[in-house]
Amino acid sequence: MFSRKEVFTETFLPRDLHGRDDELKALRGYLTDTRLSKPAESVWQLGPSGVGKTTTARYLLNQFRTNYVIDWTRVECVGSTRWELLNNICSAHPKIVNHSGMGTDELIAKLEANVNSPFVIILDEFDGLEEPELLTDLSRIEPISLICIGHDYEQALATVPDGVDDLRDAPTIEFDPFPVDALLEILEARVETGLDRGVVDDDQLERIASEASGSARRAVQSLRSAVELGEERGHTSVEPEDVHDCFEHANERIREQLLVSLSREHHMVYQVIRDAGDEGILPSEIVECYQERSSEPRGAQQVRTYREKLERYDLVESEGSSRWDRWFVVDETLKAPLRETATL
């Protein structure tokens, strides 16, 4: 039933961007100076998970690269050290070569020496940035503009060090959940590009869009799951039972993908909550158990930030938000991969 299954992956960039005309126009306006070979404003893109923040930035910057030869890169803040992020940024710049094995100061020097025309950096999952000194490093290099992608403005702003005024005063583009009609356009485009003719009908697409809670990620992954379930069951097109079962199937895949994307410390906090089982665990106990297990334990406030990230990703939950509420994992079958963090 699939003609191009890659159309339903997280990394796929659509030919046309649906439902984000206003946000795309705003971002284009903030980055206009790059087309004139001048440094552009940095900008915040904020909103819930799955509403097209990263896709919008990638879509526009791909156009800028093609039409105006603007260099850009995207880096993931979660689970990355300052050195890792600088190393990845240097790797993406076309003028920077032979930087392997360099330390932090040397990487900064490489950027300062070689970035002499507009260079846009997407700092994705900004709320996962644990070494905000990176922002000071990048703010000193005038041709660099930042697109900082996150969820909560106050939390993100609290990460910005003193002196990085351009980012502290940067404009914000808010991304709200998609309306159902926009999700339908997104799904229809994926169907046309990635499925054989007649695999899914309009009523099925409308139900999937209606159940997605405004998230394009959830809508696309639910459609993918409906088709996969149909194939597993020997169907030649998506049947009602495939749509009925696709939502939890997609949620399981999304949770697994999101958990894998997080850092080792997130994984350890998750595993502490998972190990508590049906009885759950208090916030203070999460901190205590995590700090006993971690070789480089973070403080209570940072552990709370990890837990909030896990909750935002629908990986853990509680019955409230007080210090006396007990926390549980959403899917007891999902284990945390204990990712190692690269350091130098």
How would you describe what is shown here?
By secondary structure, the chain is α/β, with parallel strands linked by helices. The protein has three domains: 20-174, Rossmann fold (3-Layer(aba) Sandwich); 180-259, Orthogonal Bundle (Helicase, Ruva Protein, domain 3), CATH 1.10.8.60; 262-329, Winged helix-like DNA-binding domain superfamily/Winged helix DNA-binding domain (Arc Repressor Mutant, subunit A), CATH 1.10.10.10. It contains 14 helices and seven strands. The protein has helices spanning 21-30, 53-68, 82-92, 104-114, 133-139, 153-159, 165-168, 180-194, 202-211, 216-232, 240-261, 264-275, 283-293, 300-312, and strands spanning 43-46, 71-76, 119-124, 144-150, 172-174, 316-318, 327-329. The strands form two sheets. Strands 2-3-4-1-5 form a five-stranded parallel β-sheet, with helices on both faces. A two-stranded antiparallel ribbon has the order 6-7.
